[in-house]
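Before a colleague's protein record goes any further, I have to sign it off. My question to you is simply how this chain folds and whether the tokens agree. I do not need a full report, just your reasoning and any doubts. This is what I was given:
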Amino acid sequence: MTPERISNAESFCVELHGLTNEIEMLETMKNRAASTCFVIAQDHHAAMVLLMKNTFYSSSFALLRSIFEAYLRGLWLKHCATEAQANEFFQGTEPPKTMVAEIEETPDFSDSVLSRIKRKNWNTMCEFTHTGGLHLQRWQSHDAVEPKFDEEELEECLNCAELFGAMAGLELVQLKKSGDTGARVLELIKKRWP
């Protein structure tokens, strides 16, 4: 990763967090649980940028599944769960296995993008999270055991961090009591991906 790319990622992260910090929302268990998932996704985003900056690429890749899962769980809690389900989730009950399908039954997610991302990338994300073969392969050079991540893969990992961090931020600001549509976050996203 070039210093310029990392600097841009840090700036994006700081700007995003500035737009999504200190959200005043209605005090419901759904809102508390969903917002916590979105904030955790944003923490993963910030951590992934920091890890990339310091060339801890394996740890950054290991967070890919975590950021995606935090975002998905937040979506399910916000758009699908009942107050009782949110309370059960908060107490440690897992979301239903149909979580992605339930999210995609809502109008905003009916294009099935989430299930396509999961279907195409879940096994790879798990490989990196659980130190599978794909992860081990990134530590093999001809002569030694050392990190050998492809520049394109590093960029893709950082893009995923930024994308899911931004989408989590958008969902978070939409929980505001004021009825914020997230226009400022959308402007930031469009500035990052014109």
